[in-house]
Specification:
294 residues; alpha+beta; three-stranded antiparallel β-sheet; 8 helices; globular
């Protein structure tokens, strides 16, 4: 039976441990909800081998409960060298859709801006995302929210087929503290530093499908997206546990390789012993096929 209890069903547990697909009624990329320390809830989505928040961060505290400073005047903002956030045009209702705008010092703070089990995406993780979506020339369209309720027209190429749902939250300028480009651009920090003054970010545009990679001054206020921490498992041990139950007849792995899937039976373990299966196979989801008892 599958994870939904259906005999010979096709539902399976995805990378977020949710029972999805088949007759479960749940989309295969569903990862449920994650909550920050303020109690804000965020939709999440599986994209390739990554699990992303599908909304911009709007937390006002670090993970340890200490407040992230806010409410700075334009002059104060441009002189900061410690963590802070702002809300576009100092209008709190903007945060409901676009989240807060954080300077990079808050992103880099050791107290952690992301919820437990999550982290601000690195520059390399952003590259992994755009590569998976076909490259920087087209990935933006696959990431942007569709329509023109938030993006300015024409919102070129927007399909949101990835489920990322990027919003055009604009930014707070590091030179004068002004707010700019809401509706036109979404700017997203990475957690990766370029040099003592600048860090890497991604930019999406209303008038093309691109994702631009640039480094900018750390004093800028940009949106933030988080990625779930990886969960590493010893797959050879996991297989032994599955088969030792006596009820598992075969294991079907859906692989991120040209083969795409692989059936394993108990006798396959002798081939796998002594080898680093974790290095040989990276899989996105596994389905256990059990005997059905009616």
């Amino acid at each position: 039976e599958d994870c939904s209890g259906e005999c010979n069903g096709t539902a399976f547990e995805n990378a977020c441990d949710n029972c999805v697909g088949g007759n479960s009624g749940v989309d295969e990329n569903n990862c449920g909800i994650v909550m920050d320390i303020d109690g804000n809830e965020y939709e999440t989505v599986i994209i390739g081998n990554q699990i992303w928040m599908a909304e911009n961060l709007k937390v006002s505290k670090y993970r340890d409960g200490s407040a992230i400073p806010t409410g700075h005047s334009d002059n104060d903002w441009v002189n900061l060298s410690t963590g802070a956030y702002a809300v576009y045009d100092n209008t709190e209702s903007n945060a409901d859709t676009y989240g807060y705008l954080y300077n990079w010092y808050s992103v880099d703070d050791s107290r952690n801006i992301a919820p437990a089990g999550w982290h601000v995406a690195t520059d390399a993780e952003w590259t992994t995302l755009t590569d998976y979506l076909g490259g920087t020339s087209v990935a933006g369209g696959k990431m942007k929210e569709t329509g023109t309720s938030h993006w300015n027209s024409p919102n070129t190429g927007a399909t949101n087929e990835s489920g990322f749902t990027a919003f055009p939250g604009g930014y707070r300028n590091n030179n004068n503290g002004n707010y700019n480009n809401i509706g036109s651009n979404g700017y997203f920090w990475s957690s990766s530093e370029n040099n003592s003054n600048n860090a890497w970010k991604r930019k999406l545009n209303y008038n093309n499908s691109e994702v631009n990679r640039n480094n900018n001054n750390k004093k800028n206020g940009f949106s933030v997206r988080c990625v779930r921490d990886l969960k590493h498992k010893d797959m050879s041990t996991l297989l032994e546990v599955f088969f030792s139950s006596g009820r598992v007849k075969q294991l079907l792995l859906f692989l991120n390789t040209p083969l795409r899937k692989l059936f394993l039976r108990p006798q396959s373990l002798q081939v796998l012993r002594g080898e680093s299966l974790n290095e040989r196979i990276t899989f996105s989801k596994a389905r256990i096929i059990k005997e059905c008892h009616r």
